[in-house]
Automatic annotation (TrEMBL), chain B:
Keywords: Membrane, Transmembrane, Transmembrane helix. This is ABC-2 transporter permease. InterPro entries: ABC2_memb-like. The chain crosses the membrane at residues 12-33, 39-58, 85-107, 119-139, 151-167, 187-207. It holds the Pfam family ABC2_membrane_5. Signal peptide: none annotated.
From TrEMBL, chain C:
InterPro entries: Tscrpt_reg_HTH_GntR (IPR000524), WH-like_DNA-bd_sf (IPR036388), WH_DNA-bd_sf (IPR036390). Transmembrane segments: none annotated. GO terms for molecular function: DNA binding; DNA-binding transcription factor activity. This is GntR family transcriptional regulator. Residues 11-79 form the HTH gntR-type domain. Keywords: DNA-binding, Transcription, Transcription regulation. The keyword Transcription regulation applies.
Length: 286, 215, 127
C-alpha cells in the first residue's frame, strides 16, 4: 500500500495551545476527513504539513518524501485549497496561470483551460470578481493543471451554499476515481464527509481522538434515546456524553456498551453527533 | 528560468495595479532637478521616491494573505527573498536610467550643462542612496510587516542627513580620505563594493527572518 | 443493475449493497461471469466511500458470490444463485426452528403449529 501522507508523532507548542503526538496515514486513492471542533488543531496540522509552521517533534512524509528535507519536490506534487483564495485580488484568471504555472514543470495549459470551462470560470475575470465558490474552484483548477497527486483542503466549504458543497464533493470523488490521487479534507462541516470519506482523523483540543476508517469510527458508537426516567445511573456512567431535556435524553454510548440498554431506542450515530458529544459542550451536555 | 527569477517575475505581477504610481515617482523628480538645476538633486529624489515603493509587494501580499501561496509553491525561502531583492534592484535601476535620460534633457533645455562627471557622480550617489534606503527597509518589512516596516526607511534617511551635516566638518587632511577623494575610480569602486556588501548582509538577514517566521 | 442506498434504514451501507447484489444474483438479473459495477465508479455514483464498497465486494467474495480479478473487476460466480438459495433455505430452517422452540414453551401442539403455517401461507399468498 503506497501512502501519500504519513504523519508520525507530530507535536507543536504555542503559548496557549499544544498539538500533541498526532499520527495518521493516508494511503493512495482515498479521501480522509480531518475533523474536530474549531481551534482543535486541524489548520495547525495542515500548516505543519506545508512547513508553514515549525514543528517541535515528529515526522511528516508526503509521497514518501520528507516534508522539510525534500520540501520543494514534495510541494510540486501537492495541491492546496484554503477557505479563502491566496491570489492577488487584482489578478485576472489568465494572470493567475502566468504567475503560478512557471513553478510547476508538469503544468498543462490545456488542462487549465479545460478546468476553467468545466467550472464556468471566465478567464478574463479578476479574482475579486469571482464568487467564493468560483474562487475555490480556481484553486482546484490550478492543482489539477499540474496533476497534483495529493490534494489538501482546509475548510474549503465554509461560506459555501449546499449546491457548491455538493459540487466540490462530486469533483473530489472524480479526482480519486482512478485510484492514483488522495484527498485530505479538513472541515468542521462534518455532514460533507458522512458518506464520501474513506478515513477519518479526529483531532480534539490538540490530541488525537481517532484515526482509521470512517465506517469503523461511526460503528464504534450508538445513540441511545429514551424518556427522563429511563436515564439510569449505569447509563449515565457508561455514556460518552448525555444531553438531557424536559421530555427525555439522548446519549452517545460505545457500541459495545449498548447491550445493557437494549430496551431503549438505539440508533446508529452520525459523525456530527459523535463530534458534538465527545467535545465537552455547554450546560445541556455532561 | 531559476526559481529566484520566477519569484522576481511574480513580484512584478503583484505591483501591476501600482504601475501608474510607480511611473509617476520616476518622472516627478524631473521637477526637482529643474528647480535645483542639479542632476544630483533630481536623482537623489528619484531614488528616494522609488525606494518608498518597495513596500508595495509586501502590502499586496499582506492584503491578500498571499504568504499562503508562498507556503504552497515549490520554492525555497532563500529564493523568494533573493527574488524580491532583485525586483527592488530592478525598479531602482529603472528609475535611475529614466532619471539619467530625462533629467539631462530637461536641464540642457534650461541651459544647464550636464557633463559626464555629473552623470557618473549622480549615478553612483543615487545607487548608494538607494542601497541605504532599501537595505534597512526590506528586512524591516519581512520582520514587522508592510505597515510597521515603513519605519525602517526613515532611520537611514536621518543617518544620511546627519552625515551630510557632519561631512563638511571632517578634517580634509586625513591621508586616506584625500587619496580616495582624489581618485574617482577608487571612489566608484569603493561605493560599489560597499553597496554589494550592504545588500549581501541585508539579504542574509531577510532570509534568516523568513526561515524562522511562522506563517 | 439497480442499486439503491438508504441513509435512514439503519442498515449499514455495505450490508445494503451485499443484500441487493445477492438478490440480483438470485433473481437472475446478474448472470454468471457478469461484471459488477466498477468499485470506484459505484462509490462515486452513489456518493459513498470507496472503502464501504470495497468491504461489500470483499465480503461478497469471501461468501463465494463474486470473484475479484485484479485489474479487471468483480465478476459473478456461477454458484451465486445456488449459494443465495442455500443461505435463504438456512434462514427458513432457522426461522422454523425458532417457531418450534417458541411453540414448545407455549405448549402448542404440533397440529396447531401446522395449522398456523397454513393460515399464514394463505395470508401471505400475494407477497
Amino acid at each position: 500500500m503506497t501512502n501519500y501522507l504519513e504523519v508520525k508523532n507530530l507535536s507543536k507548542s504555542f503559548d496557549s495551545f499544544q498539538l500533541h503526538n498526532i499520527s495518521f496515514t493516508l494511503p493512495k486513492g482515498y479521501i480522509m476527513g480531518l475533523i474536530g471542533p474549531n481551534g482543535s488543531g486541524k489548520t495547525t496540522t495542515i500548516k505543519l504539513i506545508l512547513n508553514m509552521l515549525k514543528r517541535n517533534g515528529g515526522e511528516i512524509k508526503i509521497m514518501g518524501l520528507d516534508n522539510i528535507a525534500d520540501e520543494q519536490k514534495a510541494k510540486s506534487e501537492l495541491g492546496v485549497v484554503f477557505d479563502t483564495n491566496y491570489f492577488s485580488d487584482d489578478w485576472q484568471v489568465t494572470q493567475v496561470e502566468k504567475s503560478i504555472s512557471v513553478f510547476y514543470p508538469n503544468w498543462k495549459s490545456e488542462r487549465f483551460a479545460e478546468m476553467l470551462r468545466k467550472f464556468h470560470i471566465a478567464p478574463t475575470k479578476k479574482v475579486k470578481e469571482l464568487s467564493k465558490g468560483m474562487q475555490m474552484k480556481l484553486m482546484l483548477a490550478c492543482a489539477f493543471s499540474y496533476d497534483a497527486k495529493l490534494l489538501i483542503l482546509d475548510e474549503p466549504t465554509s461560506g459555501l451554499d449546499p449546491v457548491s458543497r455538493d459540487e466540490l464533493l462530486q469533483i473530489l470523488s472524480e479526482y480519486i476515481e482512478d485510484g492514483e490521487h488522495s484527498v485530505l479534507f479538513s472541515t468542521h462541516i462534518t455532514g460533507d464527509l458522512e458518506r464520501a470519506a474513506d478515513y477519518i482523523t479526529y483531532i480534539s483540543y490538540g490530541e488525537l481522538f481517532f484515526s482509521g476508517s470512517k465506517d469503523e469510527f461511526v460503528d464504534m458508537f450508538r445513540i441511545v434515546k429514551g424518556g427522563t426516567e429511563e436515564l439510569s445511573a449505569d447509563l449515565k456512567e457508561k455514556a460518552v456524553g448525555v444531553r438531557t431535556f424536559p421530555t427525555g435524553f439522548e446519549a452517545l454510548v460505545k457500541a459495545e456498551d449498548t447491550g445493557a440498554f437494549s430496551s431503549l431506542s438505539i440508533e446508529p450515530a452520525t459523525i456530527d453527533e459523535i463530534v458534538v458529544f465527545t467535545s465537552k459542550k455547554g450546560d445541556d451536555y455532561e | 528560468m531559476s526559481n529566484t527569477l520566477k519569484a522576481t517575475k511574480l513580484d512584478f505581477s503583484l505591483v501591476k495595479p501600482y504601475i501608474k504610481v510607480i511611473g509617476f515617482t520616476m518622472l516627478l523628480p524631473i521637477a526637482f532637478a529643474a528647480i535645483n538645476r542639479s542632476i544630483l538633486t533630481g536623482v537623489s529624489f528619484a531614488m528616494c521616491f522609488i525606494a518608498m515603493t518597495t513596500g508595495y509587494t509586501f502590502s499586496v501580499t499582506e492584503k491578500n494573505s498571499m504568504e499562503r501561496l508562498y507556503g504552497i509553491l515549490p520554492i525555497k525561502k532563500s529564493e523568494m527573498v533573493t527574488g524580491r531583492y532583485l525586483f527592488v534592484l530592478a525598479l531602482g535601476a529603472l528609475a535611475l536610467v529614466v532619471s539619467l535620460i530625462t533629467q539631462p534633457i530637461v536641464l540642457r533645455v534650461m541651459g544647464e550643462s550636464v557633463g559626464a562627471f555629473d552623470m557618473i557622480s549622480a549615478a553612483i550617489g543615487g545607487l548608494f542612496l538607494f542601497a541605504l534606503y532599501t537595505v534597512f527597509q526590506i528586512p524591516g518589512y519581512y520582520k514587522y510587516g508592510a505597515i510597521k516596516g515603513r519605519v525602517f526607511m526613515y532611520i537611514p534617511v536621518a543617518g544620511f542627513l546627519a552625515t551630510l551635516f557632519f561631512l563638511p566638518k571632517m578634517p580634509a587632511d586625513n591621508p586616506i580620505v584625500a587619496t580616495v577623494v582624489s581618485s574617482p575610480v577608487l571612489l566608484i569602486g569603493l561605493v560599489l563594493v560597499l553597496v554589494a556588501v550592504m545588500y549581501a548582509v541585508s539579504i542574509w538577514f531577510s532570509i534568516r527572518i523568513m526561515e524562522n517566521k511562522e506563517m | 443493475m439497480k442499486l439503491i442506498i438508504s441513509n435512514v434504514s439503519g442498515i449499514p451501507i455495505y450490508e445494503q449493497i451485499k443484500q441487493q447484489v445477492k438478490a440480483a444474483i438470485l433473481s437472475g438479473e446478474l448472470k454468471e461471469d457478469e461484471a459488477l459495477p466498477s468499485l470506484r465508479t459505484l462509490a462515486k455514483d452513489l456518493k459513498i466511500s470507496v472503502l464501504t464498497v470495497t468491504r461489500a465486494y470483499t465480503e461478497l467474495e469471501q461468501e463465494g458470490f463474486v470473484k475479484n480479478v485484479q485489474g479487471r473487476g468483480c465478476f459473478v460466480m456461477g454458484r451465486g444463485s445456488e449459494l443465495m438459495r442455500e443461505q435463504l433455505i438456512c434462514k427458513v430452517e432457522n426461522g422454523l426452528t425458532d417457531a418450534i422452540k417458541a411453540a414448545r414453551i407455549a405448549d402448542l401442539p404440533n397440529e396447531e403449529l401446522h395449522r398456523l403455517l397454513d393460515i399464514l401461507l394463505e395470508a401471505n399468498k400475494d407477497d
